[in-house]
Specification:
Length: 283
């Protein structure tokens, strides 16, 4: 029983990281119908900036703040400089751009910080059954989700962002600056991605450190539904728990296969994800 509880707690902690990265993917997909394959690279650069700031100042939390700001700026710059010019064209163009940006940024990280692993601190004490760092991961992701919900639900900015995402033409006619709202959405999504990177990176960072996390985050986003932020959060936790049980009872080498199996099973039953809404089709 103790082993089961340990695996559950571990799954909740890792699931929070998958949920945060999945949430960042869903925010962008909702607004632009683009799966941002560059998200782990944006988070990676943010983590490396945090590493540099922490090394220079000796403060983890200054580095943490620098990572969030970097994520915010990188997300806005990516949308404004790379995605906006191809907006309205084939979605494949934007996907290819994000894939290219992923490769460029990972290569750039290796050139600047080297491909060798660097030691990277946990935010808090990581020892114990459910450590302070695990509580911080759960709490920070929950706080980010609640703030995002409050932003979308109760603020004029959130209303304009939703209008720009779901009814861009009507929003434009109502005076909403749709382009600015899309840039804001990308910036917020990249900030949440940077948070996920800061939680997932320890104890070492290297250019491919977030690759596996990104695979599980995509699985979580698809399982929950690419158009449902709440589904992304639930999907992340489900993936985290399932992979923790598989790793603990069957072996860690089967976790990737288990994620694929979960993905195939869910898509077979609910192609749009567990929390997708039924859509009407014209015949």
């Amino acid at each position: 029983m103790n082993h089961f509880i340990d695996l559950t707690l571990s799954g909740l902690s890792s699931g929070a990281v998958y949920a945060a990265l999945a949430l960042s993917l869903v925010i962008i997909y909702q607004a632009t119908r683009v799966v941002n394959f560059a998200q782990p690279a944006l988070a990676l650069i943010s983590v490396y900036i945090a590493y540099t700031v922490s090394q220079a100042t000796g403060s983890y939390w200054l580095g943490f703040g620098a990572a969030l700001v970097t994520g915010l700026v990188l997300g806005a710059a990516t949308e404004r400089l790379l995605i906006r010019p191809v907006h309205g064209r084939s979605p494949l163009n934007a996907i290819i751009i994000t894939l290219g940006l992923l490769l460029v940024l990972q290569g750039l990280a290796g050139m600047v910080w080297s491909n060798e692993p660097h030691s990277f601190s946990y935010p808090l004490d990581y020892r114990g059954r459910f450590s302070a760092s695990d509580w911080f991961a759960l709490g920070s992701v929950a706080a980010a989700a609640l703030l995002l919900f409050a932003l979308y639900r109760f603020t004029p900015l959130g209303l304009r962002m939703r209008a720009a995402a779901f009814h861009p033409e009507a929003a434009r006619l109502s005076g909403v600056r749709v382009g600015l709202m899309l840039t804001t959405g990308w910036a917020i999504a990249s900030l949440i991605g940077a948070l996920a990177g800061m939680l997932a990176a320890p104890p070492f960072i290297f250019p491919n450190v977030l690759d596996a996390v990104f695979v599980y985050a995509i699985a979580a986003a698809v399982v929950g539904g690419l158009e449902n932020p709440f589904g992304a959060l639930v999907g992340g936790v489900l993936i985290g728990l399932c992979l923790s049980y598989v790793s603990g009872y069957a072996g860690p080498e089967l976790t990737t296969l288990a994620a694929l199996a979960i993905l195939v099973l869910v898509l077979s039953v609910r192609p749009g994800g567990l929390f997708s809404r039924p859509t009407a089709r014209k015949v």
